[in-house]
Every structure is written in structure tokens, then in C-alpha cells.
């Protein structure tokens, strides 16, 4: 009997091994070709692709269009599923691939008609841009066709991929618009609601334009708004019962921003400037960016451009061409508006030309495994029409991305920029989501401006919903390129941006306020740069890794102020809590319990105050048409700055009636934090690293039992946090770090949180991850060639 059991177990083991080998062999069919030769009728001359040990390709060809073909080929072979998700994300077509789970998302983005806009962008391309895009598209489709099997994700989803179209490249760009802009103009809607029930002064306090942490390049000053008095806001007039059963959960920031900075040749140990770029975006598998080097042109006059590309597009997004290095952060200017509509009895809306009917468009959303869904959206001359979730009124969304003139393929021209001035001119005219553009050149010059199209506004405060008359007057075409704000070679020899306000005065009016960050990261970067008088690349790396908790120190002090001797009498939890925050390192490091407790306190007290305020303003409206929970104020910008001011100044009229003092509210919150973390006995284990543990996941990993985790990056603990240069959360943070001096690329540094390949069987799947994690100064340039693929003309 025992022998029979052994034979059965052996048979099961053999079958399991055969199954594993079969699956491995089947999945291996979708690995890219690394060596050898492929032919294509879409290349004019031979193109050479050399990959180093991490899979980073150097593409060498005679023409830019041939390099574009090879770029598309490589993107498709390594990252096609990522590209597919990118185009479907902005087109509202994810449900067709993954089913009902994406239906709500698809409905929300379909209103922007991005597939239609992308087609218009293609029609508007110049001849050079069209040639580039056609070559890239051909490369993508051949790269996909040359795989021996479809990418493994399609096998799991039991479907097959659709080939690439030219407009899909711009759908990929529109996915970046969605990441980087307020596509619903939600801040405007929220501020407008507060203004309608309590006045604009209150709304501007809740979501202020200025903070104490700002560090603009031009040293301009903007005063903080006053705290409104009891004649405008008075929570004490309400009863305790009004604030019972508060609803809402903590909503962390969806994007924690980016950093870039530069020092001129006067401070560099090279002759040239040094540029640093940290693009803080979502962290996922595969990574957003794909490292490459382009080499093209005639022998002896070749252009060499190194940096990162965005799969789905043929552009070098950030990088260096040997003469110029350039970098981006999100500008946070005002690129979207809410327009209040006046509706007539016969369901028309008022325009400058009188009442006109709404345009009704129907759209069918295909859903994998289910019946198609039909949606109807009304459109106005200003954009899609939505119903305000606060009061039910009809409003239109006006956004730069809706206009095909705002998007183009001009970014590739940066590859040929020769100095700071020419690079800024190219960036201003490029069709990308408007970004802070920081650039340095080989001669040592540095500069800042805005990349992308900027509305030509006339000065109406568009952080609130606009009447239709204001909408017509406020947005008069595009800002002329020669009127773009620019800072070139400032006296400080330093430039920095981190999603906060960069300029004031007239230039601030041109850009508006789309929800700048509070400025704490900008301030720390500026101060660190000013503290040094000479720089190498590793010095800029040190600045980017600054995890000092300057901003969080203010929140810590709020807790300490409340934790006096009386508050801690017979309360061991508070005693231990205070001891940990007394002893904190003042940094967001993984083994610090004190920082973790301050951070948990900040989240909890912020939510508590904001939910009470959300309930208060909702009560003032007395409007049954609204449909919000009490946490809605978290969707505004810089609202946390106002909460901190309330906690520091403790105005009685802003205190919820359930509390006798602000310190009572603070102490209750501390007790709740201790309880939610498991009680006082559990506090020693509650380090920052335990909370800030990486969740860098493949989009399908959660759908695959047992082995899905194999697709994810390691769940390692991460230093850093939102409001410091080392901005890091479990699934958001440094999606790319570049530090480079043009002309001295061999000294440059590059970090990416994952590998080149999107295929888990590839040796390039995790390459570079641990250099990113440990901030090892890994080389900016690709290494020696270990694989060579030739793409030659032919059928």
C-alpha cells in the first residue's frame, strides 16, 4: 500500500513538473527577440539595437523615422499590454478588456471624447510629425506580430490585442493628462459650493492660494487669507446632534507631485549645468518609463539622446542630448474650469448667441463578459455637461485637453535643442499636459518655463465656477508663446520646482492656480541648494533624498501642545505616545515609531476636522439635491494647511460643538490613533516602514490565485513621505530619477523602480529595482552591449 502511495505521489510530482515546464515554455513564446535579424519594409536603412545587461537598448540608425520604427518595435515587444491599458484608459475602453470592474471609470472619461480628439490631433500634424508617428505605429505593429505568442496578459484575459493606430499614441498622452490635471475641475466645483453657502472668503480660506512654505523662484510674496470670523462661520451655533454619524474615509493625495532642480555651471564642478528630475507618479508593474538611447544621423554628425521614453509614444520624454538636459514636474496651473449654465424652460442653455439646444451624444461601452452599456452625455459649447454633486446644478467642464490644438508631437524637437533658449522655445510650443520645464545646457546656463499650451486668461478668478459670460471673456485663445513666463540664469544660479507656485504677479495671473502643493518640498529643496556652494551629481542626489520632516514638525507640535501633564494623568497610552514623538528622528525613516505616530495623528485629526466642516457646509446649503459624504472637502487643494492653522490658532467659532476646546478634539484623536494601531502594547512595532511598505503591483496580479504575487515588485519598506523631497508612498513616488550634466553624461545617475521588460520570465523584469530602492548612483548611460538585433529593409 505504501509503495502504491509513493508511486501516486511520484506521478503527481511528475505531472506537476510537466505542467510547470509546459506553462513556462508557453509563456516563453511571448518573450522578445534580443539577437539576430528582422526585416521590415517600413525601415529605409538598417537599424541596430544593442541591449546592455539590464535590457536598456541603444537604437542606432541613419534617420529619425527609422529610430522611431525601432522604438515602436521594442515598446511592443517589451510593453504592449501596458501600452494597451494606456490607450484604453483615456478612451474609456478598459471594460472591453477587463470587464465590469472598469465600467465606472470608462463612463467618467468617455465624456472627454479623447478618441475623437486624438484623431483630430493626427489630422493636424506637420509632415515631419506624421512621418515620425507613422514609423512608430508600423514598428509597434510589427513588434507585436513578431512575438511567437501574444503577451501573457491576453492569455489570462482570454482575448487578443488590437493593433496600434496613430491616434493611440495621443490617447497615451491623454492618459498623462488624466494623471496630471483636474479633469473634472473638481476644486472649482467644491470652492463654488462653499462660496454659495458661506462666501468666497471662507472658500479661499479652506482652499488657499498662499501658504507659509512657498519658495517661488522670483521671491514673490502672497499673503495667507485671514481666518474668517464668527460672522461668516460659526459651528457653535449648531447642535451636537447635527454632527452625529459623520461619514467619510481618509483620502490620501492621488498624486504626490514631482521635483526638479538645476544648478548653473558657476556652481557645477563641470563646465555645464547639472539637472535633476524626480517624476513622482504611480508605481506599478511594469514601470511607467522605458529607458533608451537614440543615435541617428550621418557618421561624424550623429545625435545621441539618452533618457526615458513613454511606451505608446516615440518621444524621449526627459533626458540629455549632450548639449541640453531637460526635466519636467507637474505645473498645477489652472487648466480646467467649471462653467455654470443657465437653462431655459424648453431645456436650452444660454450662450452669447442666445439660447441653443444641448448636443446629445450616445456612446456604447463594450464590457467583456457582459452586455454593452449605452451612455448619453450632453455637451455645450464649453464642454461636457455634468450635474454638480453638491447642489445638483448643471455645469460644463472646460479643459485645455478637449482642444486638439493643445496636443501635438513637437516634444521630439527637444532632441535637437542646442541651448537653454532654444529648448524653452520648443517646450513652450509642445503639445503636452502643461508642465514645469527645467533645463540646463553644456555652456552652464539654466532656465525654467512652461511646456505645453496655456489659456490666454484675462484675470477673472477661475478657481470658482464661472458664469457663462465670464467663461467667454476669461479664456481668449492661447497665450502667445513670447508671453510665457520664463526664468533664465537667475542670480542665485539655482532653479527648483516641486508643484508649488513658481512665480507671482503678472506671471501668476497667466498660469492661475489649479491647486498648487503647499510648498514644503520646494522650500526644503531651495534651502538645501542654497546651503551648498559647489555641486557634483551626487550632491543633487543627496538633495533628492532629503527625508527631514520639516512640515510634519508643525503637526507634531500640535500634539505636544495638547499632551500636558494634566492630559496624561492616569493615561498610559498618551504617556507612551508622547514619549515616542518626543524621541522621533525628525525624519521619515523606516524604523521610526515617532514619525509614524505623528503621521497617523495628522491623517486622523485632519479627517476629523474636515468631516465636521463638510457636514457644517452641507447643513448650511439645506439642499436635498446634493450627494456627498462628509469627507468631501478632502477633494480640495491645500485644505490641510487650513486645518493646521485652525489647530494652531484654535478659533472658537470653527470648533465643532461636541468639544469644549480644540485640545479636547486633539486628545480624543490621539486616543483613537492608539486604539486603531492595536493599543499601547502594539506601539513599539508601529514603525514608519511597516506602514510605508511598497505596493508596486501588476494590474492583473490580484486576479491570479497563488502565483499572482510573483508578478509584483518586492514588498519592501520605503523611507520618505509626501511633504519632503524624498516623496514616497507605497504605490506612488519616484517613477524616475535623473541627474545629468549635458556633455558629462558618463557621470550621470538614473533610477527606475523596476525593469525594462513587462514579461515576468525576462531577466530584465526587476533590473534596476534595488538600485532605485537603495538610491545607488547607477549609471545614466546604458552599459556595454550584450545583445544585438538588426532591423533591415525587406519584406
TrEMBL record:
Keyword match Phosphoprotein: no
Keywords for the protein's UniProt record, in alphabetical order: Hydrolase, Zymogen
Key word Iron present: no
Gene3D superfamilies with a match to the protein in the record: 1.10.1400.10, 2.30.120.10, Glutamine Phosphoribosylpyrophosphate, subunit 1, domain 1, Penicillin Amidohydrolase, domain 1
Subunit relationships: Heterodimer of an alpha subunit and a beta subunit processed from the same precursor.
Family recorded in the similarity comment: Belongs to the peptidase S45 family.
The name this protein goes by in its record: Penicillin acylase family protein
Species of provenance: Parendozoicomonas callyspongiae
Amino acid at each position: 500500500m505504501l509503495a502504491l502511495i509513493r508511486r501516486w505521489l511520484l506521478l503527481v510530482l511528475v505531472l506537476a513538473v510537466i505542467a510547470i515546464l509546459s506553462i513556462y515554455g508557453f509563456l516563453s513564446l511571448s518573450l522578445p527577440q534580443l539577437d539576430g535579424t528582422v526585416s521590415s519594409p517600413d525601415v529605409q536603412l538598417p537599424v541596430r539595437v544593442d541591449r546592455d545587461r539590464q535590457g536598456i537598448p541603444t537604437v542606432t540608425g541613419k534617420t529619425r523615422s527609422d529610430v522611431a520604427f525601432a522604438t515602436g518595435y521594442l515598446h511592443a515587444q517589451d510593453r504592449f499590454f501596458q501600452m494597451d491599458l494606456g490607450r484604453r484608459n483615456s478612451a474609456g475602453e478598459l471594460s472591453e478588456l477587463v470587464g465590469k470592474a472598469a465600467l465606472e471609470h470608462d463612463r467618467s472619461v468617455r465624456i472627454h471624447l479623447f478618441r475623437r480628439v486624438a484623431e483630430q490631433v493626427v489630422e493636424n500634424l506637420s509632415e515631419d510629425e506624421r512621418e515620425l508617428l507613422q514609423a512608430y505605429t508600423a514598428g509597434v505593429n510589427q513588434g507585436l506580430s513578431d512575438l511567437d505568442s501574444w503577451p501573457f496578459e491576453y492569455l489570462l484575459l482570454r482575448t487578443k490585442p488590437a493593433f496600434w493606430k496613430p491616434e493611440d499614441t495621443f490617447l497615451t498622452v491623454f492618459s498623462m493628462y488624466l494623471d496630471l490635471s483636474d479633469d473634472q475641475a473638481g476644486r472649482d466645483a467644491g470652492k463654488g459650493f462653499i462660496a454659495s453657502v458661506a462666501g468666497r472668503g471662507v472658500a479661499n480660506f479652506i482652499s488657499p492660494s498662499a501658504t507659509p512654505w512657498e519658495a517661488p523662484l522670483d521671491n514673490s510674496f502672497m499673503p495667507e487669507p485671514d481666518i474668517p470670523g464668527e460672522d461668516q462661520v460659526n459651528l457653535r451655533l449648531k447642535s451636537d446632534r447635527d454632527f452625529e454619524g459623520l461619514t467619510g474615509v481618509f483620502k490620501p493625495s492621488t498624486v504626490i507631485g514631482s521635483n526638479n532642480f538645476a544648478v548653473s555651471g558657476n556652481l557645477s564642478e563641470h563646465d555645464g549645468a547639472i539637472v535633476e528630475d524626480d517624476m513622482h507618479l504611480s508605481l506599478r508593474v511594469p514601470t511607467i518609463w522605458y529607458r533608451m538611447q537614440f543615435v541617428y544621423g550621418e557618421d561624424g554628425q550623429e545625435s545621441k539622446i539618452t533618457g526615458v521614453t513613454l511606451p505608446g509614444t516615440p518621444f524621449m520624454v526627459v533626458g540629455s542630448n549632450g548639449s541640453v538636459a531637460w526635466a519636467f514636474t507637474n505645473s498645477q496651473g489652472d487648466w480646467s474650469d467649471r462653467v455654470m449654465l443657465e437653462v431655459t424652460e424648453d431645456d436650452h442653455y444660454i450662450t452669447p448667441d442666445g439660447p441653443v439646444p444641448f448636443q446629445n451624444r450616445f456612446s456604447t461601452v463594450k464590457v467583456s463578459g457582459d452586455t454593452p452599456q449605452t451612455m448619453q452625455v450632453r455637451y455645450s459649447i464649453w464642454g461636457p455637461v455634468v450635474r454638480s454633486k453638491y447642489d445638483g446644478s448643471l455645469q460644463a467642464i472646460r479643459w485645455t485637453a478637449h482642444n486638439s490644438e493643445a496636443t501635438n508631437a513637437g516634444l521630439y524637437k527637444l532632441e535637437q535643442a542646442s541651448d537653454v533658449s532654444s529648448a524653452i522655445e520648443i517646450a513652450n510650443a509642445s503639445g503636452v499636459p502643461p508642465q514645469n520645464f527645467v533645463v540646463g545646457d553644456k555652456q552652464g546656463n539654466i532656465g525654467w518655463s512652461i511646456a505645453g499650451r496655456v489659456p490666454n486668461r484675462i484675470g477673472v478668478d477661475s478657481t470658482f465656477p464661472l458664469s457663462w459670460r465670464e467663461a467667454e471673456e476669461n479664456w481668449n485663445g492661447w497665450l502667445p508663446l513670447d508671453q510665457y513666463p520664463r526664468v533664465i540664469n537667475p542670480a542665485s544660479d539655482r532653479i527648483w520646482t516641486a508643484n508649488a507656485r513658481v512665480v507671482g504677479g503678472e506671471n501668476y495671473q497667466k498660469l492661475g492656480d489649479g491647486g498648487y502643493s503647499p510648498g514644503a518640498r520646494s522650500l526644503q529643496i531651495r534651502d538645501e541648494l542654497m546651503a551648498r556652494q559647489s555641486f557634483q551629481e551626487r550632491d543633487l542626489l543627496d538633495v533628492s533624498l532629503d527625508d527631514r520632516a520639516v512640515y510634519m514638525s508643525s503637526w507634531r507640535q500640535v500634539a505636544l501642545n495638547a499632551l500636558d501633564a494634566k492630559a496624561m494623568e492616569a493615561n498610559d497610552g498618551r504617556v507612551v505616545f508622547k514619549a515616542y514623538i518626543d524621541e522621533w528622528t525628525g525624519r521619515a525613516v523606516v524604523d521610526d515609531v515617532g514619525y509614524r505616530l505623528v503621521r497617523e495623528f495628522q491623517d486622523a485629526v485632519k479627517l476629523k476636522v474636515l468631516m465636521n466642516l463638510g457636514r457644517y457646509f452641507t447643513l448650511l446649503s439645506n439642499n436635498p439635491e446634493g450627494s456627498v459624504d462628509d469627507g468631501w472637502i478632502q477633494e480640495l487643494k491645500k485644505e490641510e494647511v487650513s486645518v493646521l492653522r485652525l489647530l494652531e490658532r484654535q478659533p472658537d467659532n470653527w470648533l465643532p460643538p461636541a468639544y469644549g476646546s480644540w485640545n479636547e478634539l486633539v486628545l480624543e484623536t490621539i486616543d483613537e490613533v492608539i486604539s486603531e494601531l492595536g493599543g499601547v502594547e502594539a506601539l513599539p512595532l508601529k514603525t514608519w516602514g511597516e506602514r510605508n511598505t511598497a505596493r508596486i503591483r501588476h494590474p492583473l496580479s490580484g486576479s491570479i490565485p497563488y502565483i499572482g504575487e510573483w508578478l509584483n515588485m518586492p514588498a519592501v519598506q520605503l523611507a520618505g513621505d509626501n511633504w519632503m523631497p524624498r516623496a514616497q508612498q507605497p504605490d506612488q513616488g519616484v517613477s524616475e530619477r535623473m541627474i545629468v550634466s549635458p556633455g558629462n553624461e558618463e557621470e550621470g545617475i538614473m533610477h527606475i523602480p523596476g525593469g525594462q521588460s513587462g514579461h515576468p520570465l525576462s531577466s530584465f523584469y526587476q533590473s534596476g529595482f534595488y538600485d532605485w530602492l537603495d538610491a545607488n548612483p547607477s549609471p545614466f548611460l546604458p552599459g556595454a552591449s550584450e545583445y544585438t538585433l538588426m532591423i533591415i529593409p525587406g519584406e
